[in-house]
Amino acid sequence: MRFDEAYSGNVFIGSSPDLDRAQTVLFGMPMDWTVSFRPGSRFGPKRIREASLVLEEFSPYLRRDLSELTYYDAGDIPLPFGNAEKSVSEIGAFVEKVLQQKKMPLGIGGEHLVTWPVVREVHKYHKKLAVIHLDAHADLRTDYEGEILSHATPLRKIAQLLGPDNVYQFGIRSGTREEFEYAEGENVHFHPFEVLRPLRGVLPELKGRPVYVTVDIDVLDPAYAPGTGTPEPGGISSSELLAAIHAIARSSGVEVVGADLVEVAPAYDPTEQTPVVAAKVIREMLLGFSR
User: Fold this and answer.
1) Does 135 carry a binding-site annotation?
2) 3-127+199-289 — its CATH code?
3) Annotation-wise, does 165 bind a ligand?
């Protein structure tokens, strides 16, 4: 599959048609086959792209403009409706092609299970990979109601692949007793409830390491992002999420080699503030993380 075969017709603000020169490839993963509460995140990538049109290409935070980098929006990966196993395989195959061309993958979900095949492929190229995970939910279950491929399991799979001590979790405020005990007993860098303060504290430890960043939009309090499948009260503000992205981007020696933002479900937010804040976070990721 070529990148342009995944093209969905609408692109994120500032994207370039020049794949050869692009440092980063943006792509959608429109999957919500395993959600446990409210479906609809498969419509997130398209709506986030549309919402990006409200933004400027210039970031006053990073003092950079999207015109200063070349990134390619490949559109949405065609995924077989309802088939989680094949969808995971298709995502992995697509990301492998991105990495073969020495480009950084930046994905838009879709449910959080889509992170698993991306990290699995990135790890093949970066053996000392660490994962920074911002989320309301631990996602450390071995299965959800008997299903091992679930949006409740990706970080457990990632921890088993990389080793728990290479997983850094922030903002977690929901999970089973077993998940919390696993995180605390298996040396996951587990920072429940908070994001910015503990994140700033651990970034020096990641100097010289390749890092993958995954953001579940429900790390935000539902007041800031009601359009998500599993909202969880008690979250952070959009300002703090942006500050966390900027802290990673500005951290000396930390090389981001891949990233994603997931779990935007537009139907539950008629105000459209959720896709707008997601688009802004993606803009900051593009400007802050692209080589």
Assistant:
1) yes
2) 3.40.800.10
3) no
